[in-house]
Write a structure and sequence with these properties.
- With 252 residues, the chain is of the alpha/beta class.
- The chain contains eight helices and nine strands.
- It has one domain: Alpha/Beta hydrolase fold, catalytic domain (Rossmann fold, 3-Layer(aba) Sandwich).
- It starts with a helix and ends with a strand.
- InterPro entries: AB_hydrolase_fold, TEII, TesA-like, Thioesterase.
- Pfam families: Thioesterase.
- This is Thioesterase II family protein.
Length: 252
Amino acid sequence: MTDVDLWVRRFHPADDAATQLLCLSHAGGSASYFFGVSKALAPEIDVLAVQYPGRQDRLREPCLRSIHDLADGLTAAIAPLTDRPITIFGHSLGATLGYEVARRLEQSGVIPTALFASGRPAPHRTRLERTHLRDDAGLLAAMKELGGTETALLADEDVLAMVMPAIRGDYTAAETYTHRPGPKLSCPVFAFTGDRDPKVTVEEADAWREHTEAEFELSVFPGGHFYLNDVVPDILGKIRAHTRSVSAPSRK
């Protein structure tokens, strides 16, 4: 198994697609969260759904509790895929991880076509949060408060025992992240947020504009932290509109 196979799930491979979409999930999420996105965008866009360590088919691996460590491992793994234009979409934890991956790609000479950052304050505006320090019941309660499509599975004690280390590891990574000074991104940034998201204000989402030298756009949708589950066609429409404007890789 290659590093690409370890980190990336291509549910609907689209080898002839002009662009790729790297999808990064929220804390406690997995690659399967993007199965529907992959189905909807294929064969126009080759969706690369990222599987973090410590869950599903990577259950035996230790979780990575640092966004910087996750970004290092993922960026190295996807290096063979950068011969085609790559767009990054991340939600919550995945938004910050996507930003760090974009930074590393640009440092290597590969400019993503764009970063779509959803449900997360700008990197320099992350909050002081301690959810990862709660006991299992407290951590689970916090996760359920945010909603999402996967929390119903956590009622099963056997499932919960398997996934709790990954959930705690992800929350640790998200809540202990520290932004490191450096150049702004060369690629455009499109920030998405829900108007009632308790994890990010509209002002905190708008602050993403401070991290790019290129185009910035903020889209505010009705809903909470998982607003995106209710506006999938709108989000996919924005992604399609962007990727259709991309005709060739951009490199330094």
